[in-house]
Amino acid sequence: MAFQSPSPQPSIFKKKAHGSTPNSTPALSLSSSATSSSSETVLDDLGLDYDNGLSYPRVPPTSEQVFTTVHSEFGHCANEKYRYTSQHRAGTQYKSYPEQDPPYYILLTTYLSYLMVICLGHLRDFVGKRLQPSHYRHLVSQHGYAALNSDFDSFYTRRLKTRIDDCFSHPVTGVPGRTMVLLDRYSPDYNVTMVPSGTRTRGLNISSYNYLGFAQARGGCADAVETSINRYGVSACGSRLEGATLDLHQQAEALVARFVGMEDALISSMGFATNSTIIPALVGKGSLVISDEFNHASIRFGVRISGANVRTFKHNDMPSLEALLREVISQGQPKTHRPWKKILVIVEGLFSMEGTLANLPVIMELKKKYKFNLFVDEAHSIGALGPHGRGVADYFGVNPRQIDILMGTFTKSFGAAGGYIAGSKALIDRLRVHGHSGCYAEAMTPPVLTQVIASTASIMGISSAPEKSSSLSLTARSDAINPELEMEAYPGRAPLSILPAWMPITPSMADGTDGKMRLRRLGFNARYLNRGLRKLGFITYGHDDSPVVPLLLFNPGKMAVFSRLMRTRQVPIIVVVVAYPATPLVTSRVRFCLSASHTKEDVDLVLTACDEIGDLLDLKQGSGERWSLQEITDRAVELVGMPELV
């Protein structure tokens, strides 16, 4: 964060659409940015969008604090009231907000919608294959060759997804931070093809897994990455480093192990591959995997190719898990009834489609009782939950050493790529030899490794770091530092000696204030949007502290309308809609992803849009006490600080 805002210019937010003229957009308030005073600004990028045809204002922060962030990438917010520490309250039982069912007419119309799509789709296929056979050539056998695509399997894609394809895979450019620039497009053939219009639209980004806001082109992490490119060269960024190990790999693994509180860690260049290539090295024939029914596809794939038996339990249902454990332990292996060689329970720390947290305290009690091994996938929870950002174990105050295997990715909170496996040194040493990712996958590139190291150190803070100087080259690190000063108990700070000696470090990174600020801003934003939507009357899933907020739409036709209405507002809001087969058939939803880069006003903007669109689409089907939009925005701090609303 090393950028000072220039002098103000008139507030203009230009949005260009195909065949239309640019429209000016009302300014957004930045009252949360500082004190009681406020000034008007918009979703600007301070003139950093190079030659994109957009014009944005240059508005300095209205506070005694001098912000050093680019406002479009990381929103200005100096008001300490808009902070919250994400942490489970000791002595209380963990509960997710109870899932609510919509009225029967909502379910009935949703099923009727799918029925109409299916009936009309088959009728169009029947007629089309006879009147326009060229359009179905890829679905029928030709010249003795079987069709590459199954008519039945592609039916859903052709008859539903294609109709709303403008809501998916939208090309973007620039940094996916607080705001994001969409490359505008249109379709002349009902979404079969998309044609770029040549214009761009900047909107509020509420769709990226940028939980801590490290998706920045300016700042301490970006400076570190730039230095690594200068040091290791550009060629290393694109070359195939299969089997290669740099000093950065060892430093990153050591730092990640300390970050999550484990003895050792193994990093991989791809998050999906971390699960799919490591799980087969953990279990095999004669072993049993007990998996949450909503676990990620990478876990399912890894279990499938491992050859182990697999049983699933109802999502986050601890009585269901215990009943299954009793059954499988008493029955043993199929046919032979011999004891299982190994029982591995796999759960996710934060379920990205549901917004629920694994009930880790109860799982740990079951682990002591039934003696199984525990694998926790923290792809979405690491860096996003807990007072120190160490994930679901940190959130619940559980000693991570009591968990056998911790897995996570760097693509969300860390703004990088790849994943890691952490555990005991003996386990990690075995995985280095038997895991497929180490033998066959490409190694992580130096810039990505540097981003991982810099962002992790920023969250942790750095022990024994020099206190002065705005940017520290720290060439004299290492042997002169007393090792005893660096061995802090978990959750401690990052030891200075294991960081690259050439990596620049800002003061806010060294003292941990940057990471703490990001964690507390994310905690406030997540809790505020979760509770604000429920007070408006929407049905949402998940926990109050989850940065992923699923808002239920139910009817498939409402997905496209909701996404388009959000994207075409005066201040566009970029969202992600999700439906079957990623979710159950009748629970189509929009999934908001909060970030530390969002300001309180950004969340107000989302609530305002949802309030208007919710009335239009009849989405407010939730029960419980309702507040007006004005009351929610005025009492935001009180709403966030209320006891658990369960």
TrEMBL record:
PANTHER family: CLASS II AMINOTRANSFERASE/8-AMINO-7-OXONONANOATE SYNTHASE, LD36009P. Its EC number is 2.3.1.50. Pfam families: Aminotran_1_2. The keyword Transferase applies. Keywords: Pyridoxal phosphate, Transferase. One of its GO terms (biological process) is ceramide biosynthetic process. Residues 1-36 are annotated as: Disordered. Belongs to the class-II pyridoxal-phosphate-dependent aminotransferase family. One of its GO terms (molecular function) is pyridoxal phosphate binding. Residues 204-456, 514-608 form the Aminotransferase class I/classII large domain. It is an enzyme of class 2 (transferase). One of its GO terms (cellular component) is membrane. This is serine C-palmitoyltransferase. Its cofactor is pyridoxal 5'-phosphate. It catalyses: L-serine + hexadecanoyl-CoA + H(+) = 3-oxosphinganine + CO2 + CoA. It comes from Rhodonia placenta. Residues 20-36 have a biased composition (Low complexity).
